[in-house]
Amino acid sequence: MHQRKVFSIWTITLLDVFLILISYYISHLIRWLITPDISYSEFNIYRLFRGLPIIFFVYIFAFYNNNLKLTEFPLVKTEYYIRTLITLVIGLLVSIGFLYYFKLFTQSRIALVIFTIISSAVLILEREIIARKRFFSIRTIFIGSKKYSDHLVGAFQENSFFFIEDVGRLNAKKVNKDFLKIAEKRLKNTSVDWAIILEKKYFILGGICEKLGITVSYPVRPVFKNVFSFATLENVSGELFISFHRVTMRHLELFVKNIIDKAIALILIFSTFPLYFLIPILIKLSSRGPVLYKQVRAGLNGRKFVLYKFRTMYIGADLAKRELANRNEMGRVAFKIKNDPRITSTGKFIRKYSLDELPQLINVIKGDMSIVGPRPPLPDEVNNYQIWQRRRLSMKPGLTCLWQISGRNEVSFDKWMELDLKYIDNWSLFLDLKIILKTIPAVMSGRGAY
């Protein structure tokens, strides 16, 4: 089955790049046709295609990396389609960068917009045709519980990009010599790409599959008691290790998230630049002390970093915290007071609209934080976490999160922790986008901010 998967990856990758190059030509042709003032001489095919070698190699690399996703079973179609569109846009930006560098960029901006639309539609259509026509089907035999097998077949049919062709089941009340002979004969005389052994008592059939050259998969739960949401397999000097992760291992999407974080941070810094002069003046007028407040926070997996904020409290506020402990409205871990006497008049205003958090954009650029992620706690708060709450540190902290758009300090501490874990377990670029869009009205309303 491995050879088939590699063949599928290269076949689809080459088809992807071919369709992209065709879309590239058609987009420039359309641009020429819809623009009457451009003469045919200006539609210079040679000049247009000088940059094709660069575009070809960029997209070969980008889409081969994208199509490595095809080795996952079952491959969720929607995730694969979203990943494909992201790869298309990244490839376009990288291609433009190279074309500028080698002074080969002669493309029209209108043509590039048309290219993006056409190529996106064509690539998704290509994948839908492959999925619906059941190309590259994987002939699969299920060994074990009929109920478990039926469940997996349903899951594959609903989610898998490749068609998982069910070629039968193998099961018995007792695994004895007679059953092993029947199973060996069945496996030898049936065209099988993939055998899924579902129960521990059938693991002995793995050796038969190995001799027959059939790829074998085992469920993890019968072997390991504690199984996390995500697993990877590593080969270290011939030794195989299976690793379990509680956060997503979608490296391309996480890489894109990192790029988007820094791009948004830079855009926000430039667009709010006047506030970096105005707010310090207001702080100085309302109270004595530094403009910036620096505080050690716990970041990814508990790593400590210095968080930056505009100062909203009087000098000595940290010392006064102990005296106000009995007024804490957030339980024994976090510390929040609705009408906190330590906050200055200016501080109340800039806190209400989260303006005090603008310097944290520097933390995002430094890599300490993301735009979206669980809010970074104090190390002392982490020490008081229950064991299930500590997992919220398994993703890089952010400026905004589900808690931020759900009422902030109006939400109980346990509910806050649950929202963070929900974000981690369901993370995607689209979830980040949804949170960012909902953050704008949440910040403008000032709900739960104090």
Question: Which structural traits does this protein have?
Answer:
3 domains, 50% helix, 16 helices, alpha/beta, Rossmann fold
Question: What report would you give on this structure?
Answer:
With about 450 residues, this protein is of the alpha/beta class. It has three domains: about 1-130, no CATH class; about 140-225, 3-Layer(aba) Sandwich (Rossmann fold), CATH 3.40.50; about 250-445, no CATH class. Helix content is about 50%, strand content about 10%. It has 16 helices and ten strands. The longest helix is centred in the N-terminal third of the chain and has 33 residues, at about 1-35. The chain is flat, with a radius of gyration of 28 Å. About 25% of the residues are buried.
Quick rundown:
This protein is α/β, with parallel strands linked by helices.
Inertia-based shape: flat
Number of helices: 16
Uncertain spans: none
What gap, in angstroms, lies between the N and C termini?
A: 58 Å
Structural class: alpha/beta
The share of residues in extended strands comes to 5-15%
> Number of DSSP strands?
10
For the report, how would you describe the main beta sheet?
A: 4 strands, parallel
- Rg over C-alpha atoms, rounded to the nearest angstrom: 28 Å
- The residue-averaged pLDDT reads 82
Order of strands, widest sheet: 2-1-3-4
- Please give the domain count: 3
Along the chain, the helix and strand elements come as HHHHHEHEHEHEEEHHEEHHHEHEHH
Q: Which range best describes the helical content: under 10%, 10-25%, 25-40%, 40-55%, 55-70% or over 70%?
A: 40-55%
